[in-house]
Design brief:
single chain, alpha+beta, Tetrahydropterin Synthase, Chain A, four-stranded antiparallel beta sheet, 4 strands, 23% helix, binds zinc ion
């Protein structure tokens, strides 16, 4: 089994909704988002996937979240923008773009800080 991964960073604000009528203060993070792709058989070039292709798709998906207040955007106006939920949404959407008969997006890690991260496994 082979895995490759790529990371990107976005600076964005969020405000978690806690109990009804209760929420965090608005604050920001430099979110580190890492996507991991897996396959059993390398392609004819000896690659899982070209890092450029992985990086471009990952970046294209998260680019609209750069320097914004996430809670104002879909799906974060409805879904709490936790690291866990962000990891799931990125994994599912990236999977729609990159999964094929050979490769699969298997997990996404989202780090809010150097020491606090969440992982979603597909
Ligand atoms: Zn936060």
């Amino acid at each position: 089994m082979y895995e490759i991964s790529q990371e990107t960073v976005i600076a964005a604000a969020h405000q978690l909704r806690l109990a009804p009528g209760e929420g965090e203060r608005l604050h920001g993070h430099n979110w580190r988002i890492k996507a991991v792709i897996r396959c059993e058989q390398l392609d004819s070039r000896g690659m899982v996937l070209d890092f450029n292709d992985l990086g471009r798709e990952l970046r294209a998906f998260v680019e609209p979240w750069e320097h914004v207040f996430l809670n104002e955007l879909e799906p974060w106006n409805d879904v709490n923008p936790t690291a866990e939920n962000i990891a799931r949404v990125v994994a599912e959407e990236l999977g729609k773009k990159l999964d094929d008969a050979r490769v699969r997006v298997v997990r996404v890690e989202v780090w809010e800080t150097d020491t606090c991260g969440a992982t979603f496994y597909r």
